[in-house]
Design goal:
8 helices
Length: 120
């Protein structure tokens, strides 16, 4: 978490948005009916692409260094291919962020064998 109160507040708000906007879609992405699956894919893609401007400002998610927010988004971004969600060419900063995130040793070592196979 950031050291300053304003930064911590911003990180808490962002974490809450990630939970509400991204993680709430996981049940439909993992086993929902076809209509719910398609809706969840579309919504997740929209929210991930919406982070493009944020990721242009700092190298990490709202931070100059790897933080709890990066750890929070990593599992969702890692599973995008599994869920049939592709980052479009219109969001190159998101794609670069994902490559940097997945190259981070902390992220790589946190993956279970099943998760590693998702992107083998």
């Amino acid at each position: 978490m950031p050291g300053d109160p304003a930064g911590r507040a911003q990180a808490r708000i962002a974490a809450q948005r990630i939970e509400l906007d991204w993680y709430s879609l996981v049940p439909d992405l993992e086993g929902g009916e076809r209509r719910e699956l398609l809706r969840a894919r579309r919504r997740l893609l929209e929210t991930v692409v919406a982070t493009e401007p944020l990721l242009r400002v700092k190298p990490w998610f709202l931070s100059d260094q790897f933080s709890v927010l990066d750890a929070a988004v990593a599992p969702i971004l890692w599973r995008l291919p599994r869920w049939g969600v592709a980052i479009p060419p219109t969001a190159p900063t998101v794609e670069r962020y994902c490559r940097r995130l997945f190259a981070n040793p902390a992220v790589r070592t946190s993956l279970s064998p099943e998760e590693q196979e998702m992107r083998a």
